Every structure is written in structure tokens, then in C-alpha cells.
Amino acid sequence: MDHEGPLTLERINEVTKMCDREQPIYEQISGFSIALYVFGHFACSDLLSADDVDHVAAGSILKEDFVEIKKEDIPSDYHIATSLDRYLVVFGDPLFPTHFAVVVNMKDPQPYFSKLPFFGSGFDSLEELKREFIGIDGLTADDIAYYKLKRVEPNEKGPAKIYIFRADGTVSS
User: Across the strands, what pairs with 56?
Assistant: First the structure.
């Protein structure tokens, strides 16, 4: 049974709840860390234990763990809870990105989840994200790219054999 979809939604819910606190430590966590945490990129138990990622580290992670795709490659019925695939919208130069937004639900009017610099975390449309970032530091609509998380291919060897060693010295599988 695949638990990654519900865990991803639980991490999104956790991030959203962290934003509602007064004097949140959450404000000190980068938007890159938020997006990668939602994907389960960090081996940690909660958001506050996640590593903080700056734009340089985000570029390295993007290069190592993701592959660029076209927006059209994301299925129109994609939902993060039911798919094994994970997608990001990246604003800025992929080597030194400005922002990561997680693609959550392509059927929703606000399909992207991220942490914005001034308004905390939440769901946005592409137009809302463009208003937030286009024009800042020279970003244009051409500086938006889509990426897919590389999946580890399952081991093709098949199921492992179990060997039974008996007291009389015989072995069976």
C-alpha cells in the first residue's frame, strides 16, 4: 500500500498550520525548504527539523533530483495524493532559483502550494504566482519552468528467496 500521498497531504497541512502561529519560527524557513519538505526530501520528523535550503543549494538539488519537463507533460487529472509523481514549478534561473511551488492538483483553480515571502504558505494559481515574482530581479514569464522529481526505479531482481537451514543439515528454499 502506498502511503506517500497521504503523508504528502499531512506535510502540507503541517506547513499550513505552522503559518498561523504568532511569532512563528516558520518565517525563518525558506520557501525551497517548504517545497522539498512537502515532497519528503528530508529525513526528518517535522518541518522545524528540516534543513534550510538557500537558492544555491536549491539549484543543486534541482539539478540532481529533478528533470525539466513541459507543463503539458503534467497529467490534467494530476493530484499529488493519488500519483507517485511529484512536480515543481520553478521561478528564476534553475541554477539559482527564486521560488519553488509544489504542483498539488491540476483540476483546482489554485493548483500550486508554496510559501510566499510575505503572505506565508498557501495555494495559488499560476497568475497569482506570476504577480508575486514576475518583474522582481528581472524575472519574466520565460523564467518559469516545470520539473519532475526523479523516481528511484524498483529493483528488477524480483522477490528475494528465503532459505531454510534445518538441524539435519539440509537446505530448502
Answer: none
The pLDDT score that the predictor gives to residue 61 is 94
| pLDDT tens digits for range 134-167 | 998 888 999 999 999 997 555 455 556 676 767 7
Burial class of 15 by CB neighbour count within 10 A (0 to 12, 13 to 18, 19+): buried
Any idea what the CATH number is for the domain that residue 93 is in? Answer: 3.90.1720
* Full residue range of the structural domain in which residue 22 is found: 4-153
3-class secondary structure, 155: coil
Residue 161 domain flag: no
Q: Give residue 59's pLDDT band: very low, low, confident or very high (50, 70, 90).
A: very high
pTM recorded for the entire structure: 0.79
C-alpha separations of 27 from 6, 69, 91 in Å? 25, 31, 20
CA distance 132 to 165: 65
52 domain-assigned: yes
